[in-house]
């Protein structure tokens, strides 16, 4: 996918509309012309507006401190008492790389 400048300091990935249309035609909605028309209308409306803004908004809300993913997960696990306060992003990365085989929690444990 090609990148294009949106404004200084920001980049956006150019969406491959033709490839997406091909995938949509293979979906269960392919027989519905209204579905493809809705997709096209939504794409035209979102391009240059919500497609850019929505992603930035989600990042700001989900991770206002700008933590890397491992740090954010470690903080969450500590906050919800899944692990003790000494658990670090390095611990999470190690657990992740080992498929959580030796993690101090099980992935399917209820919260």
Give the SSE layout:
Elements: E1 3-7, E2 10-13, H1 17-26, H2 33-46, H3 50-62, H4 69-79, H5 89-97
Antiparallel strand pairs: 1-2
Helix pairs in contact: 4-5
Report on this structure:
The chain has 111 residues and is mainly alpha-helical. The protein folds into two domains: 17-62, no CATH class; 65-111, no CATH class. The chain has five helices and two strands; from the N terminus they run ββααααα. It has helices at residues 17-26, 33-46, 50-62, 69-79, 89-97, and strands spanning 3-7, 10-13. Strands 1-2 form a two-stranded antiparallel sheet. A hairpin with a 2-residue loop joins strand 1 and strand 2. The radius of gyration is 20 Å and the shape is elongated. The model is unreliable at 1-15 (pLDDT under 50).
Strand content: 5-15%
Q: Within the largest sheet, what's the order of strands?
A: 1-2
Distance between the termini: 38 Å
**Unreliable sequence segments:** 1-15
**In DSSP terms, counting alpha (H) and pi (I) runs of 4 or more, how many helices?**
5
| Cα gyration radius (Å) | 20 Å
Class by helix and strand content?
mainly alpha
Tell me the count of domains: 2
Arithmetic mean pLDDT: 75
The rough form would be described as elongated
Largest sheet: 2 strands, antiparallel
Q: Percent of residues in helical segments? A: 40-55%
DSSP summary, beta strand count: 2
Order of secondary-structure elements: EEHHHHH
Annotation keywords:
disordered N terminus; 2 domains; 5 helices; mainly alpha; 111 residues
């Amino acid at each position: 996918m090609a990148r294009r400048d949106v404004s200084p300091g920001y980049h956006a990935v150019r969406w491959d509309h033709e490839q997406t249309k091909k995938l949509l035609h293979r979906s269960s909605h392919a027989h519905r012309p209204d579905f493809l028309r809705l997709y096209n209308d939504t794409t035209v409306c979102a391009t240059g507006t919500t497609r850019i803004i929505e992603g930035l908004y989600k990042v700001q809300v989900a991770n206002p401190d700008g933590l890397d993913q491992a740090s954010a997960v470690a903080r969450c696990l500590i906050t919800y008492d899944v692990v003790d306060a000494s658990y670090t992003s390095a611990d999470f990365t190690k657990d992740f790389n080992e498929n959580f085989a030796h993690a101090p929690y099980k992935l399917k444990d209820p919260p």
